[in-house]
Amino acid sequence: MTRQSAPRSLAGIAPKLVELTDNVLFGDVWERAELSPRDRSLITVTTLAALYRTEQIGYHLRTALANGLTKEELAEAITHLAFYAGWPNAMSAITQLQKIVEETEGEDVR
Predict the structure, then answer these.
(1) For 5-107, where are the alpha helices, taking DSSP H only?
(2) Domains of the chain, residue spans
(3) 105 DSSP assignment
(4) Which of 2, 12, 37, 84 could disulfide-link to 67, CB 3.0 to 4.6 Å?
(5) What is the distance in angstroms between the CA of the first residue and the CA of the last residue of the chain?
(6) What is the pTM of this model?
(7) pLDDT tops 80 at residue 54
(8) Residue (of 37, 98, 36) closest to 72 by Cα position
(9) Architecture of the 36-110 domain
C-alpha cells in the first residue's frame, strides 16, 4: 500500500488539518498492525457509503482496490449495507464504484 496523504492543495487554507491527516490518520491509525490496510479500506468504504459521504468515497474506493479488495467484494459489501444504511446510499456508492471500475479497466490498481 502506498501511504495516503491529504490533498496538498488544502495546506494553504488548513495546514493543521493536512498535518493531522498525514501524521495521525494516515501515519498512525492506518498503519496500526491490528487490521490490514485491506480491512481498514473495507471498513472505511462501507462507513462512508452508510453515512452518504459521497465526496470522499471515490478516493477510498480506489484505495480499497489498491489495497486488494476486488470490485466483486466491494459490490457485495455495498449491496449488504443497502439493507442497513438505505438504498439511496448504496446506489450512490455502487454508481461511483462502477465509474471507477470502468475508468481503471485494464489497469493494475495496486
Answers:
(1) 15-20, 37-50, 54-66, 71-85, 87-104
(2) 1-34, 36-110
(3) T
(4) 37
(5) 7
(6) 0.86
(7) yes
(8) 98
(9) Up-down Bundle (1.20)
